[in-house]
Amino acid sequence: xxxxxxxxxxxxxxxxxxxxxxxxxxxxxxxxxxxxxxxxxxxxxxxxxxxxxxxxxxxxxxxxxxxxxxxxxxxxxxxxxxxxxxxxxxxxxxxxxxxxxxxxxxxxxxxxxxxxxxxxxxxxxxxxxxxxxxxxxxxxxxxxxxxxxxxxxxxxxxxxxxxxxxxxxxxxxxxxxxxxxxxxxxxxxxxxxxxxxxxxxxxxxxxxxxxxxxxxxxxxxxxxxxxxxxxxxxxxxxxxxxxxxxxxxxxxxxxxxxxxxxxxxxxxxxxxxxxxxxxxxxxxxxxxxxxxxxxxxxxxxxxxxxxxxxxxxxxxxxxxxxxxx
Length: 325
Hints:
Oligomer: single chain
Radius of gyration: 27 Å
Shape: extended
Strand order of the largest sheet: 4-3-6-5
């Protein structure tokens, strides 16, 4: 399950804030063979590690920046007469519940984290406000056709995607026999499962999905960029063996990639737009300027060596046997 960095930071912050709260002085945390461990000692240790973790993950600055961004986005939405509804906020909440595998798993996970349902809903406000604010920006800043074409020409190699499938065998003779079998009417996916040496794609009938040609070795890349869509090509030799390739779809024109290009153009511009809103805002943190507060956070954080992040996105799947090493 992939969860955004902001959500991870805020969930962790919630745990830090909730942990060890409220105990009477002189209370006992535990006993060991009759000897008491004071609750105050436990909470002192907990407070120490709370401070260390907060510094390592730069939580003060992360939370502050998120709250400032949230406020300027709300102000911009209000300026444009856009009100957020309960239905808007429910979208991100429903995604979170689904990401945890349903209501029961979601509830159990929150209990383990020590976070309430209301606290998580509050942390998801940013995602909802951000989504609505981006939608407003996109509506008001539609790229021109000339701008879209210019972006396509400049970034074509990174934009083009191809849906293809292949069958990998050891020799050219074997590859020719595979092509003959396909020409006689055998299904591509059946032959791939039966003989392809690329076991990863073979399980999916030889499919490599929709991907960038740049991921593959040069000979394979050339074939999927030049071969006619739908055609069963001649054997293609690479360092892995011989491939029989079929290109199922190729998105390599401005028209096919227009939505993706618009998203990328507006994504880059929106980031700059939001940064300017923050820069132009009159921000005070407990009476001090935001820049001064940032300096104080940096000074606190420099006393701690940043820990290796233990919360990471799930690992990328293994590459196909046509992919670059």
